[in-house]
Amino acid sequence: MKFAVLDFETTGTQSVGEIIQVGLAIIEEDRSISRVYGSYVKPGGPIPAFITGLTGITDRDVENAPELEEMMMELVPMLDDVVLVGHNVAFDFHFLQNALDRCGYLPFQGRILDTIDFLRISYPSLTSYQLGAVTAQFGLKHERPHQADSDALATALVFLRCLEELEDLPLLTMQRIADLFSSEDSDLGWYFDGLLQERERQTFQPEDGMNHFRQLALRVSDWAELEPPRADSPLNPLEDETFESFLENVKMRLQTILPGYESREAQDLMFGEVHRSFAEEKHLLIEAGTGTGKSLGYLLPAIYHSVRNREKVMVSTHTINLQDQLRERDLPLLTEAVPFPFKAAIFKGRGHYLCLRKFEQRINQNLAGPREDALIAAQMLVWLTRTETGDDEELNLGGRGGDFWETVASDTDSCQGRSCPFFRKCYYHRAKHEAGNADVVVTNHSKLFADVKAGHQLLPSYEHLVIDEAHHLEDVAGKHLGMHMKHFTLAHTLLRLYKDSRNGQLPALRQTLQSAGSEQASEWTAAIDSIYPDLLTVKENWDQLSERLFALMPSQSDASASEAGQLVLRLQPGRRPKGWEELVTLADAFHLALGEAVRKGDRMITEMREQEGQSSADNLVTDVGGLFKDLAAIREQVRFFMALDDEKTVYWLEASGQYRAKSLQMYAVPVDVSGQLKELFFDKKKAIVLTSATLTVDKSFQYMIDNLGLGAAAEQDRLLTAQLPSPFRYREQALLVIPRDFPSVKGSVGDAAFVEKLVQSLSEAAAATGGRMLVLFTSYRMLRQVYEPLRDALAASDIAVLGQGIEGGSRTKLIRRFQENARTVLLGTSSFWEGVDIPGEALTCLAIVRLPFQPPNHPLVEAKSELLQAQKKNPFMKLSVPQAVIRFKQGFGRLVRTNRDKGIVIVYDTRVIESYYGKYFLYSLPGPKMEHMTTRQMVPRIEEWLQEGGGS
C-alpha cells in the first residue's frame, strides 16, 4: 500500500479560497518516505493579511510561482494508485477535487484517510490533535508549521507513528475495532479490515501484561489484590520521629532529586502551621501566595500526621485540574522523597469513571449511531489497554464525546455492585478501595459536599481535612446545598429512556422481553407500552413549562450580564411574578405525569428483579431502574423550585438569548451557607486547614471567618490564622501603574470616547511590551466593544488579538495560542481572572480595565445584600468590596508566576486612587511598586522600567 500525504495552504475557506502552496509526501510500501514535493502556486488575487500572518506566505513569494495548471501537471502523476492521507483531509480533498475539475482531469477515485482519526484511535489521551501540538509532543521536527511541504512531511511522520502504535495493540483489541467499523462502508473501515487480516496471519502477537476478560483486553488487574501501604511491616516508620527530623530528611532527599530545590521561608512556615493545626486539633486559615509551593506545604504535614497517627487525611481541591496536577506532579515527587512507603489516592466523583459493564453493552449493541460514536468507542478500546484508573480526564473525546461518555459512565443507580461480572475490575470500586487503603485521599469540593449529602457514604471517614483554593468554598457549598438543574437534564434522561419505538433503553428492554416469549414477559411488554404515552406527556409538559418560564425573562439581557447573552431573572417567595399560578398548575400536571411514569417503571423493575433468570435483560433492567431513579430525583427538584416558599433560599432562572427555553437553568441556593458549613464541617472535624492565595482583605481574615462560619471556632480559640510572606521580590518584579486622568465609565458598557481612549492606550502599551499582554474585563460586552478597533490598531505592529468567546475554542486553547505566539494580546472576562497559569515571558503586561465588582443585580448578590442590610451592616463594604478585592488579587496573581518573571500591571479604573475604598485593593496586593501618572507618561515609564535591571 502506497500513501500520498497531501497538504494545501490556501487563501481562505473551502467555498472561496485559492491554493497558494502545495506539499506532498510519498510513503512507500516499506514505510519509507521516498520524496517530499513542494511548490508555491500563483493565486488570482492578493493574499489576505491574516493568511500571511498564519503561514508567512507573502504576495512576493507567489509572484513568479507556477499557475495552477502547471503545478497540477506535476502533482497528478504522483497521485496514481495511492491512498490519499491528510490532517483534516476533507479540507485538502475539497481543494484537490476543485483543482482537478478546473484543470480538466477526472476526479480522484482512490481511498482517503484522515490522520486525525488515526491519532484519536492510536493516542486517545493526547491533549490536542492539532498538528503543531502533536509534533511537539512526539518530538518530531516540524520546522515551518503552516507551510505545505513542512506540514505534509510532519503529517506523514505522525501517520507512521500511528501505524506503529496500532501494530502493538493486542489482537483482541484490533478485532473489536475492526468490528466497530465493519457495518459502515468507509475507507477507515476498509483499512482496519486489512490491518486485521494482516495481524491474524502473524504467529507472534504482542500482548504484554494484558488481562483478557469477556472479549476486552484490559491493562487493569483485580483491585482486591491491592495491598495497603506498609502491609509487610507491622512497625510504624514514624514511631519515634519528630516532625522536624522527618522534614529535614525529606528536604535532603528533595535536593538530590531536584537539583534546583531550595528551602523557602514561606513554605517552611507553612509546614509548621499545618502541622500545628493537626497536632493541636485547631482549624487554620492560611494565605499562601503564588510561588510558596503550597501543595507540598500541606501534603508533607498531612503524610506525617496520617502515617504517624494511623488517621486518614482528606485533601480537597476546587478543580479537577488541580487534582490531576497533584497526581501527576507533586505526589510522584513525594513518593520518591519520603523515606518510607505511603499511599495517596485520587478519588473523584463517580461520573468520572468508566463503567465496563455499560461500555461492553454499548459496543455489543452494534453502534447504529453516528460514525463519531464508532470512533469514540475505538478510542476507548485502545485506552482500556493503557489505563489503570478509567478516569475520563485521561481521554480526549472531542465533539460528541460528552454524550457518549454519559451512556458509559459509572453511576450509583445503575451499579450492580458485587453481582456485576466486572466488579473486581471496576474502576470506580478500585478508586474507592484505594481511597480506603490510602493515608491521604485527594478529592474535590464537589465530591466533599456530595458525600455530606449522601450521609457520608461516598468518602472514607476522616477527621482532618485540607481545603485548597478555599476562596471557592462558599460558592461550591451554595450550589451543592441548594439545587441547580438544566432544561437539558430532564430532556436528556427522557431521551435515554425512550427516543422512539426503536431507540432508547425501554425499547431495548422491550425487544429482549419479546424474544423471551414467556407470559410474564408479555405482561411486562404491555407495562412498557403503557409507560410510553406518560413519558411523551412529561416531555410535552416540560417543554411547555420551560417555554413559559423563559417567557418571564427580561427581554434583553441587562447590560451587566457578564458572559455572552446570559439572561437572569430572580424569583422571590413574597413577590411571585404575574401569572405564576398558571405555571404552578402546569408544574402540577408535569409532577403527576412524571409520578405516574416513575411508579409504573419502579413496579415493573421490582418485579423483574424478583424474578430470577432474567439474565439477558439484567443489564438493561439495572440501567432502566437507574434512569427512573434519576427522574424521581428531578421531579423532587422541580417541585422544590416551583414551590418558591423558603425565605432563606434565593431562587433564580438563567438562560441564553440564543438558545432560549432549551438553555433554561433553575437555581435555588441558600443565601447564607455559613451556618451549614459550621454545622457540617467546623463543629464535626478535629482540624480543617483552609488555604488559598487570596483569603485576606486588607491583611485581615475577617471576611472569610464571617462567610465560612468560623466565628464560633475563633471565639473558642480553635482557629489559627497565618498570612505567609511572598517568596517573590515584588518591588523589583512588578510595577503597577494607574493612569490618573483616565475617563471613568458607568455600567458595563463604555461610551465611544472611553472605548477610543482605552483602545489607544492598550495598543500603545502592547506595542511597547511586544504583545504578551492579558487584558481582563468584567463585562463581555465591553470586551466585544474593544476587540475589533484594537485588532485594527495593532495590525500595523504585527501583533495579533485573541478575544474570549469571539475566536471560539475553550479557555485552554486560547491560552495555548497565546503562549505559542509571542506577539499576541489576549482579551478575557470572568474565567480568566483566576486559575490561568502563564509563567515566563509569554505574559509581560496585565491590564485590568475595571475593578472586578460582581454585578449588583445578580440574584445571589442581591439577596446577600438584603440579608446584610437586615443585620444593619453595609453590604457594599461587607460584601461587594471584599469579593472584588479577592478577585482583583487573583487577577494580579496571573502576572508573576516564578522568581524570574518581570511584569507590569495597568489598572485603568481610577477608583483605586480616588475612592475611599480604593486603598483596600492596593493594600491587599503583595507589595509591587505602585505609581500613578497621566496616560501620556505611561508608555515611556513602562519602556524605561522594562529596560531597568535587565528586564526582558
The count of domains is 4
Read across the widest sheet, the strand sequence of neighbours is: 10-11-9-12-17-8-18
* Oligomer kind: single chain
Number of strands: 25
The description of the largest β-sheet is:
7 strands, parallel
Shape: globular
Distance between the termini: 52 Å
The CATH homologous superfamily of the largest domain: P-loop containing nucleotide triphosphate hydrolases
Quote the beta fraction: 5-15%
Helix tally equals: 36
Give the rounded overall mean pLDDT.
89
The CATH architecture designation of the largest domain is 3-Layer(aba) Sandwich
Structural overview:
It comes from Paenibacillus spiritus. This protein is of the alpha/beta class. It folds into 4 domains: 3-168, Ribonuclease H-like superfamily/Ribonuclease H (Nucleotidyltransferase, domain 5, 2-Layer Sandwich), CATH 3.30.420; 243-343 and 685-723, no CATH class; 502-670, no CATH class; 730-948, P-loop containing nucleotide triphosphate hydrolases (Rossmann fold, 3-Layer(aba) Sandwich), CATH 3.40.50. Helix content is 49%, strand content 13%. It contains 36 helices and 25 strands. Helix 5 runs parallel beside helix 15 (371-384) and helix 21 (505-516) packs antiparallel against helix 22. It is globular and about 85 Å long. The two termini are 52 Å apart.
